[in-house]
Design brief:
The chain is mainly beta and 234 residues long. It has one helix spanning 2-11, and strands spanning 14-16, 23-27, 30-34, 43-45, 48-51, 54-57, 70-73, 96-100, 106-110, 119-126, 132-138, 143-153, 162-166, 190-193, 205-212, 223-231. Among the domains are: 84-112, no CATH class; 119-231, Satellite virus coat domain (Jelly Rolls, Sandwich), CATH 2.60.120.
């Protein structure tokens, strides 16, 4: 009787395992598992459960103490192409993180960096600006690496307009002095300063551009970008 049941299984489109059990079928060379109602079913191999969009490791977990399942799954939405991830050749070193080459090949990299991040703040100065133009608050601990002035449009006054970068009052030229930029130059001229000042202490430092349009020959055109690059050492 057992032999006859096995032979029947090989002559039908699906082979049923046990009375009322799941059915194994063949779909273009691929193994399929179906319920008795011919509905696609999960395939559970030992403690690995592959179903739909997820893979469950330790799928029969008790869900208590140290016995929990682990699930890997793809995003529910947002994908625009198939994704293949290639894992690293080893298990990396302590504190390393996984990075990608943009094509799905993963590798280990050391987290963080010993190099402080360079930050840039840009303020535009126009020919009709006020005598003092607010920039931004330089954070406590910050060190100004350099100040760059890019002349977008030359200031056309008969007298030389000037600018300086620093703080209000006595510190107006702390980071960039008035004579360091020729605002009557040519568009795309660049002027730079490396002030070499110590880190900001106590409280944030409010930076300003001090602008002098030159009386008697004030410009009617002109624009410059003032960029302050700074770091906060770790």
């Amino acid at each position: 009787m057992g032999l006859w049941a096995d032979l029947v299984g090989t002559t039908k489109t699906a082979f049923q395992i046990g009375v009322g059990g799941v059915k194994l079928g063949n779909s273009s060379g691929n193994l399929t598992v179906k319920t008795t109602a011919d509905v696609d079913s999960e395939i559970t191999v030992s403690k690995l459960n592959v179903s739909g969009n997820a893979i469950e490791i330790n799928s029969d977990a008790a869900g208590s103490d140290a016995d929990w399942k682990y699930t890997l799954q793809r995003p529910a939405s947002g994908m625009s192409a198939a994704v293949t991830l290639t894992l690293p050749v080893d298990d990396g070193s302590p504190s390393q993180i996984l990075t990608t080459d943009g094509s799905g090949v993963l590798s280990w990299a050391t987290a963080g960096s010993t190099t402080p991040l360079l930050t840039c703040d840009t303020t535009t100065l126009n020919w009709n600006s006020a005598a003092e133009v607010s920039m931004f608050n330089l954070p406590v601990g910050a060190i100004v690496d350099r100040v760059k002035v890019v002349l977008d449009t030359a200031f056309n006054g008969t007298s030389l307009a000037t600018l300086s970068v620093g703080t209000t009052g006595a510190g107006a030229s702390k980071y960039f002095a008035a004579g360091q930029a020729n605002l009557k130059g040519t568009a795309k001229d660049v002027f730079e300063s490396n002030p070499g000042e110590t880190a900001v202490s106590g409280s944030p430092e409010a930076l300003v551009i001090t602008f002098a349009a030159a009386s008697g020959g004030s410009p009617s055109a002109g624009s410059a970008r003032v960029m302050v690059f700074y770091v906060i050492p770790s």
